[in-house]
Model the fold of this input.
Amino acid sequence: MKIGKIANLGRTSIIAEIGPEDWRDLTLGGGISTVGAAAAALAAGALAAIAKSSPSVTVDEKGLVAPIDETARILCAGFNFGAHATESGRDVPTQPTFFSRFPSSFVGNGQQITRPAASVSLDWEGEVAFMIGLGGRHISVESAMSHVAGYCPMGEHSVREYQLHGTQATAGKNFDGSGGFGPFIVSAATCPAPSQMKVFTHLNGKQMQHGQLSDLIFDIPKLINYISTFITLRPGDIIATGTPPGIGGRMTPPRWLVPGDTISVEIPGVGKLTNSVVDE
Done:
């Protein structure tokens, strides 16, 4: 199954695909008004029944928005590919490292990401992200995967100049509309096993990044285990697993995203996120 979010005529709906092009409006039919509630129903095995009893809806991809709730916590693993840590001149971490992003920093598939007026140093980062369906605290490594509702491509793009203003990455990671997320949350049951997942980033059709999750320093169960030691994870929370090597800021000279560029992040078996770039 897939979970999405559409905005049409001033109304936002949570939608689910229960068969090829068979989309249902969970908000109208099932009373599900948040992506987190849909993720929780998916993890509990109840979403299919809710969707089947919900009205059909025609999905125009132009109406898709990022499938993120305004209340979602978005935690991104830093330097979780050893090769990316090396290209960035950083030590390979011995413990998971995270920074947070806000929902306002993401747009959906097919929407335009924004290069801010404050800096030209908008760089690409393609990542595998996953959404929590079953919340909890102090989640064990052994049980962690049962808390995952599904997976989604993330364009975790960064304004490098502001990221490097200090030791904290918050500013460079949270410019409004600088990242992409979507098009859908795809149920874990229909995705490749995480150890088999690959992620590709293409700039104007040219491959810039390629990584596979089997190369992560800290795998998904470890990320969930670590995060849940300090917060109670909730349905709808999003965790990004880290970006592989190949960022533009480490090219000579650096290659930043510019207006007119098209950047895509693809996870075979999960989906493809595509965004164009415009100036603020």
